[in-house]
Amino acid sequence: MIQLGSLSQMSARTDAETTPSTRPGLATAVRRALGGLLGLPPATADVVVHRGLRVPMRDGVDLVADHYEPHVATPAGTLLVRGPYGRSYPFAALFGSIYAARGYHVLVQSVRGTFGSGGDFSPMVHEIPDGADTVAWLREQPWFTGSFGTIGLSYLGFTQWALLTDPPPEMKAAVITVGPHDVSGPRWGRGSFGLNDFLGWSDLVAHQEDPNRLLTLLKQARAQRRVTRASYGLPLGEASRALLGDGALWFESWLEHPEADDEFWTRLNLRDALDRTEVPVLLLSGWQDLFLEQSLAQYASLRTRGVPVGLTVGPWTHGHMMTKAAPTVIRETLDWLGTHLGGQPPQRTRPVRVHVTGQGWLELAEWPPAMPEQVLYLASAGRLDTAPPEQGGRVVDDVFVYNPADPTPTVGGRLLSPVGGYRDDTELARRADVLTFTSDPLPADLCVVGTPAVQLSHSCGNPHNDLFVRISQVDAQGRSRNISDGYLASAPDAGVVRLELDAVAHTFPAGSRVRVLIAGGSHPRFVRNLGSGEPVGTGTALATARHTVHLDGDSRLILPAGHGPPSTH
Predict the structure, then answer these.
(1) pLDDT at 12
(2) Alpha-carbon gap, residue 69 to 48, rounded angstroms
(3) How far apart are CA 1 and CA 43, in angstroms?
(4) Residue 185: helix, strand or coil by DSSP?
(5) How far apart are CA 516 and CA 428, in angstroms?
(6) What residues form DSSP beta bridges with 79?
(7) Residue 188 in contact with residue 290, Cβ under 8 Å?
(8) pTM of the shown model
(9) How many other C-beta atoms lie within 10 A of the C-beta of residue 21?
(10) Which residues contact 304 (CB under 8 A, 6 or more apart)?
(11) Cis omega before residue 418 (within 30°)?
(12) pLDDT tens track for 220-248
């Protein structure tokens, strides 16, 4: 969501227009050029845009929308797009004109409290009733085709799940790209409060409609440094408010309710949609996207219930979905819509399509696919061995100390921020507060497809401690790059713990080495554990945590892996 809002103000002032768009010849040329660049099927219609339509809600508030009208005798269908980032570039192109030029009526709406829509923006709170009221208005429009689908990414995906909690009978398809159905916690990222992204997103949304657009864009170029600086301040609530100013008034309330099962989060938990909807859903995600685990959970739930569902996961971050991933996303979206709105035969031959590093794209019958299990054991001298330690031998311990005053830094991973994704983490592995265990060079390719896990025989003298675990690939020159992460907040004082890591589809090439990194945090991706037990928003006292990993055979890496990719049958 962070990258999306940064683009929305580039032409935000056009959102108030109430007349059809002008210069159709130029607009048509731009659409054709963009379609050719993305490798899309040819456009079939000219488009007129009716801007500034007012859509009434049940409480008297009007939401503003733009209608993209295709000039064709027989429209392909109707699409609804609802989001908070404005209705201008890039959303106008990627979710409006591209589809309208291929025969769809498209309604692009700004959610409550954003870009001219009435009311106050309170993230995710109003999307169920506002979505239902928008559909009630839509079905009364003379141009409505009688059925509709939904498209969109990130927050625009959440608004689709809001509709799917009680799907209107006219809703026939949904294409949800990196869209969460549950932000309770807010665990935007596995295992803990996703501080970097939640604070960064709140800062961006709070300023995305600032009148000085150039100044806003310049501020966003420095946004990550500002967020990181604020994340070190204590108490965190005050430091964050200093960054946010008088915007994003929801931030403190989210910070004050860190538990996912708190009743505070009831309205932001749309898990019921997974149990209720029968609407065919296409899910698009990336291996380095923040909401990857939610996309996989959505697929598993719908698939188990027999709902028509497709899943595509590529080598992308959240921000890539509108850039590098855009050709794939749009082509697959058009295919899904054509199948479920237009009755066309699908191009997709398998429900799951994943990109495996080193192998390319694979079409699978299920996720996760059947794979052999490979186990590597954490051993002394920083080794990752194929054999367990000898029974009855002396147990070796490895120790590291996590200091919240100098927290282990975040390097890459599943972030909204542009600093996320695959990164060189060689220097991270060299830190004194990080344990590393590295295998010998692999004699053959090792293809890992599924969800890795790390099991640790672990103890810590401080009951207030977290664990961060990562798998990285080490090349022949000794450079290390992240592959998969796991995080456990409030780890037990002692015992064997298991951390589920990010799902992957990756080939470690022959000659490379597998590395496991273990630390007590990853800051500011996850809020740092102060070690003192004080509340995260108001605490100021810090205490170190001395961690011990016992190399007794119970500390191990479990990989769904073989020498080749899984079967496609």
Answers:
(1) 34
(2) 5
(3) 29
(4) coil
(5) 12
(6) 106, 149
(7) yes
(8) 0.93
(9) 19
(10) none
(11) no
(12) 667 888 999 999 999 999 999 999 999 99
